[in-house]
Amino acid sequence: MILSEGQILFHEGDSGNNLYVVRSGILQGRNTRGDSNTYEAGDLIGELSLLKNEPCPETVIATEDSELLEITPENLNETQEQEPVWFKSIIQFMTGRLSIAQSNKHKSDKIKALPSLLYILDSKATLAASNEIALDEILQAVHNLFNISRDDIKDVLLLLEELEILKVQGDNVVFKNKNVVHLLYETIRYRARYQKMPPQILSMTEQMVLNAVIKTVQQSNEPLKNGMFTVMTPDLLKVSRRAMYGATLTTRTLLPLLQRKLLNASITLGDGSALPEIEAVPFFFGDFDTILDLMELNRIYPLLDKKLV
Prior knowledge:
This protein has helices at about 45-50, 75-80, 85-125, 135-145, 150-160, 180-195, 205-220, 235-245, 250-260, 290-309; strands at about 1-5, 10, 20-25, 25-30, 35-40, 45, 60, 65-70, 130-135, 165-170, 170-175, 230, 265, 285. The chain has about 300 residues and is α+β, with helices and mostly antiparallel strands.
């Protein structure tokens, strides 16, 4: 079979079931996801269509004059008689490897799409006057800047929607919390840059303490003042006995959060070498929205890797 330069072998979605072996020349395959493959002498084209009767996964075009051996289901047995006995087995093996490779590539593409998408979301959320951005604007921006397929971008958007970070409503993307999008992007960027745990990630003890703080604030009748909360120490101790699952709240337990300024004590505690008993501190205070956003980040962060892979 001879294909002239520019001639199309088949289109993506065609219901062909033939296998082609490239004898000479070069062909290029491309699908609507933006994936591409190059086929040269010795390569197989269409093995999934032949053995699994699946639609053609891409459009293949000859980029120079090419010669191919065409194998149909009808003449496969005849070909096997002429080729070594392991001919069909090797095709089936390669088909299996190709399926695995395609699956792994799709996962890899989604992993690559996540930071790119978060960068665009964070950039546009900062500039947007409302919590809504046009879906097509996001898809086009990520695709143009990072050459990521729109399908992969949509898959990651649905993942973020599943994690309740945003919601895709018709032609728009609606942010549930712009600050969490920013925190998530900065966290992933830090991990990629420094190859270590980002500073925004809390330990389990820190999360339990902040959970006790949140519950204490929610149960208090004291209104927030410019987003700042105040919790009396006796109230915090009472809630912590239930909220910290048996762990004891002490000034030593609170110290990492105090050092990070997520919590502030009403008295000076010193450098940590000789801390007073927690009962000696009348109250603690801090920014309530900052703590809520950080707790939301710590809910989302460990779920991302699990859902992406």
